[in-house]
Structure formats: C-alpha cells, structure tokens
Write a structure and sequence with these properties.
With 521 residues, the chain is α/β, with parallel strands linked by helices. The protein has a domain at 429-520: 2-Layer Sandwich (GMP Synthetase, Chain A, domain 3). The protein is 28% helix and 26% strand. The chain has 14 helices and 26 strands. It has helices at 25-36, 56-72, 89-100, 114-124, 149-155, 198-205, 222-234, 251-257, 267-276, 299-309, 385-390, 430-437, 473-483, 509-520; strands spanning 41-47, 50-55, 80-84, 104-107, 128-131, 145-147, 171-177, 185-190, 212-215, 238-242, 262-265, 289-292, 312-319, 323-327, 341-342, 348-351, 366-371, 380-381, 392-393, 396-405, 411-416, 421-423, 426-428, 443-452, 458-466, 492-495. The strands form six sheets. The protein has a nine-stranded mixed β-sheet with strand order 2-1-10-9-11-12-13-14-15. Strands 16, 17, 19, 20 and 21 form a five-stranded antiparallel β-sheet that branches. Strands 4-3-5-6 form a four-stranded parallel β-sheet, sandwiched between helices. Helix 1 (25-36) crosses helix 2 (56-72), helix 1 crosses helix 7 and helix 2 crosses helix 3 (89-100). The longest helix is centred in the first third of the chain and has 17 residues, at 56-72. It is globular and about 65 Å long. Residues 1-10 have low confidence and may be disordered.
Length: 521
C-alpha cells in the first residue's frame, strides 16, 4: 500500500490531531494572539497613501464590532453574505466578521464581470451583498440586503460582542471555482478547514510567531486570505499586504523595507521579478525563503532565484476543495521537478484513473486521492450533489490531478484529467470560456486550451468555428472581456473549419495544443 496509513489502525486516514467539536475559524485565527500579545502588529497594509498597521487587539475588536452590526441588521446564523469589493482591508474585515457571527461569507474575485456576479448571486442566494462601490453590480435579485460603503462604516461603530457558537462541521465560507461545466461551482468549506491547514505550517511555511509574511496577492483573493492572513495570524506572526499598484521590480524593495522573512506569490511573479529587478536590489537580508502556489513552479525559476538571492523557493500543490496538501519546505530536501511530498498527517494515495480504490504501484501514473477524513477537505459542492458524488471513490476524494509517487514518497505531477487551465493562479474551466465565446453571433463552436511556450510562459488559445463570415478578432476579444473576468479571456484566437472531436463527441484538446506547438516550431 502506498498511501499514508494511520499509525494507530494501519488504515488510510488523516493522522494529525483533529479540531475540537466547538470551533470557529475567526476565533482560531485571532483570539489567542489578541489575548496573549494584544499589542503585537498583526497586519501591515502598504497602500497608495502610506503604511497602516493593526495590532491583534485592534483587529479582533473591529471584527467583533462588525459581527455585532451584521446581527443587528437582521442577518442570522448560516446566512450567506456575498462580498463584491476591491483590494481593501474592509474586504477581509467583512469576511472575518461574517464568519465570527456564524454567517457564511462568499469571497468573490474583483475580476469577475457583472454578468458573472449575477450568476453567482442567483446560484448562492445570499441574504446580503457587501460592496464598496468600486465594482459594477447588475440589478440585485429581490430580498438581498445591500451593505454599501456607508453601511460598512456603521458596522464598525457597534459594541463588540462575542464569537458565535459554531461547530467544526458548520459552514464557514463558500468559494466559487471553475468546474467541468459551463458555470463555476460553489465549494462549501467548514469551520474546521482552517484547522486542516495546520500541516502546512511545518511542511510548507516553516512559520513561527517571529515571522513577517509578505503576500503579493490582493485581499480579495482566497490565496491571500489563506496564506496571507489565516495562517500567519494562527501562528501569531505578522502579515504584510500591499494594496497599492506594484511593479515586479518593486517587490524586493518592499521585502527589505518591511523586513519580510517569508514572501508568498505565484511562480510567474518570481519570473517577472528576476526579469525586471536590478540584481543589486535582489539582496534581501531578512528574507528566509519564498512560497509558491497556484501554478507549477519551473525548475529554471527556482534555480535562478536561488543563485541570485541566496534564498530558496518552496512549492505547494493544492486546489480549492482542500487548499495545499503536497509541498516542499526548509524541513525537507525537495527534488527538482516535484512539488514535494504529502504534508505530515495527510492521507494521500495515487489511485487508478478509474474504478479501484486500491493504490497503483510506486512510479505509476494515476489520479491523486485525498482521504475524506482530512479536516481541510470541503463540506461539499453547493447544490451539486451529483457532481459531488462523482468526485468520491469510496473514502477517497478524487482531485482530478494526475501524478505518480516515487519510492521516497515524492509526487510527480503530470496534469489534469479534466483539462482545467491555470491562469495567474486561478483555475479556469475551458468549458466556461467556450460557452461565452459561442454566444457571439458569428461563432458556431469554440475550443479553448492552455499552451506552454518557451521561457515558462503559458497562454490561453481559442479555436473558433464560425457562422458564415469570420468576425474581427478584436470584436471577439471584446465580447469575451464583456462576459469573463480578465484572467479567463484567451490571449490568441484561431479560426478553423472544424474542431477535432473524439468518438464520444468530446473536443480533442491535445490536438488543438499540437496545432499551436507546430506553428511555433
């Protein structure tokens, strides 16, 4: 058997400590430090107008004030609250306040179009939507409370109350991710999900209370909420977030200026930093190491970063349903080309592509499974019981990522079963993009693929079959931009007479990728 087994029973299953039955995500992240080190800096915000600092006591007081205000508005425990806000600290405060009050926040990307938001509102049926007025919203469905900029100000003026009494398996937040259908699907996480991140502390971050973690993402990105706020705060560390527009060459300066010891970003940002920053500025004395996730990490970037800065990059592999669960860290010797090993306590197996729950032999490619006992695993897909059921095989959650495990337990990632794409750390369903393109009056069929180019750059390419005359490419691009978030819009457009299909009618995406590769060779 190659999966990680429970030491006590010899059977598959999560072997780490489980969370207490009474458990709240926000209380876990904030309360201990607010009580023991109340005046320690929990957050530094680098904004356009200067630098702002918050202590643990200040953050907890503000969160509990806003939680009380939400309850006073008539919102109840388990109500869903949609967050439609830009890159600002209020985004995070609304998220944590809603959770502290026992509600279910829905953190949404600021890059979503108004049309995409309308679908999510219809699907999630939230009781309220919080907005700062910086992003477009179409007409709201009836019955949704609007919490605008002025209302958010008033929330902060309430007398702080205690945390809501929630259980470990109660809903904590709902996030939307691209699925294998033409619409995003909701991933519902439990309060315990933050406890399920504990294996990352040692086996990815190597984090302690003395660390200062600078995250390159925005407040309104779940990668930032988790890696930039949940985990540093749960460890009593200091989080640093930049809300000002930042050029790649500026990040080393920010690391030095704010004495960051850990830097978290997507691999493509590290590549741009190396390309545009002066080599002298890449000397960062306080930096212990960098973290990468959201995209596969090219070995060339890791090598160049180490040679230039003297520090290492540590990679993690994850997904919206479980967050990261395979990683490298300073505590283990990584292997170039591998995202690492399953984190301590996780029960991970490489299973056959179909059918069996018996793991394949070592060094054999299969699909990665995560045991359902993992506290970090989602509660389920929102209103998608059939799709949720299809993701389980016995007690294993089937991730859709294909890989092999070598004799020493390292994972060698090979791709995805469902042709999911990755754009700047976001998972993107080709089916979703194709559905939008096919709504163009001149497009009959569309096939979308991601293609890896030279220098560790990937692009999203669309292959289009037209109705009659070919439309102007810029017209098609403008159509895509109208209905899709910027990161979902294809870079290239190719008009072809017909799409290649399998005997069962599925698009042969590998053949489309080969066409791009052939044109570049």
């Amino acid at each position: 058997m190659q999966e990680h087994l429970s030491i006590s029973t010899g059977k598959p299953g999560f072997t780490g400590e489980l969370p207490p039955s009474d458990f709240n995500l926000t209380r876990y992240c904030i309360h201990k430090s607010a009580k023991t080190t109340p005046d320690k800096t929990a957050l530094v915000i680098i904004g356009t107008d200067g630098v702002e600092s918050w202590t643990y006591r200040q953050i907890e007081t503000r969160i509990l004030s806003m939680a009380a205000g939400l309850q006073k508005m008539g919102l109840r425990k388990a109500d869903r609250l949609f967050i439609r806000m830009g890159n600002c600290f209020d985004y995070a405060l609304v998220f944590f306040a809603a959770n502290a009050a026992g509600m279910v926040p829905i953190p949404a990307s600021s890059q979503l179009t108004a049309k995409e938001v309308s679908f999510l509102l219809e699907d999630a049926t939230p009781a309220a939507i919080a907005t700062d007025g910086t992003l477009p919203i179409e007409q709201l469905p009836s019955g949704i409370k609007l919490i605008d900029h002025d209302a958010i100000k008033k929330l902060k003026q309430n007398q702080p109350q205690g945390y809501s009494a929630t259980r470990a398996d109660d809903p904590a937040f709902l996030i939307y991710t691209s699925g294998t259908t033409s619409h995003p699907k909701g991933v519902l996480h439990a309060q315990r999900t933050v406890w399920g991140r504990r294996p990352m502390y040692r086996d990815w971050y190597d984090i302690c209370a003395n660390d200062r973690l600078l995250h390159a993402g925005a407040f309104n990105w779940t990668y930032t909420l988790g890696t930039g706020l949940f985990d540093p705060w749960a460890n009593g560390a200091t989080s640093i977030i930049c809300t000002a527009k930042t050029e790649p060459a500026s990040w080393p300066h920010l690391i030095r200026q704010h004495k960051a010891s850990i830097f978290a970003a997507v691999p493509s940002l590290y590549r741009r930093i190396l390309k545009y920053a002066d080599s002298k500025t890449l000397q960062m004395p306080t930096l212990r190491h960098g973290l990468t996730a959201g995209e596969p990490q090219p070995a060339s970037i890791e090598d160049q970063w180490h040679q230039t800065t003297g520090t290492r990059l540590y990679e993690a592999l994850g997904m919206s349903e479980i967050s990261t669960y395979i990683s490298t860290s300073p505590k283990s010797n990584g292997r170039q080309g591998s995202p690492g090993k399953p984190q301590t306590g996780r029960s991970i197996a490489i299973l056959p592509q179909t059918g069996s729950t018996k793991p394949v032999a070592r060094n054999t490619t299969g699909v990665i499974g995560v045991h359902r006992t993992d506290p970090g695993l989602m509660l389920g897909y929102w209103k998608r019981p059939i799709e949720e059921q299809a993701m389980y095989r016995g007690n294993w959650f089937i991730t859709g990522d294909t890989a092999s495990m070598d004799d020493d337990g390292y994972i060698w990632f090979t791709g995805r079963n469902d042709d999911m794409m990755n754009a700047m750390g976001y998972r993107v369903s080709p089916v979703e993009v194709e559905a939008v393109l096919c709504n163009h009056p001149n497009i009959h069929q569309a096939g979308v693929v991601q293609v890896n180019l030279a220098n560790n750059v990937s692009i999203m390419a669309a292959f289009l079959v037209c109705h009659g005359d070919k439309p102007d490419i810029e017209d098609v691009r403008a159509h895509a931009k109208k209905y899709l978030a910027a990161y979902k819009v294809p870079h290239e457009y190719h008009f072809i007479p017909r799409l290649p299909h399998t005997a069962s009618g599925k698009i042969k995406r590998s053949q489309l990728r080969d066409q791009i590769s052939a044109s570049l060779s």
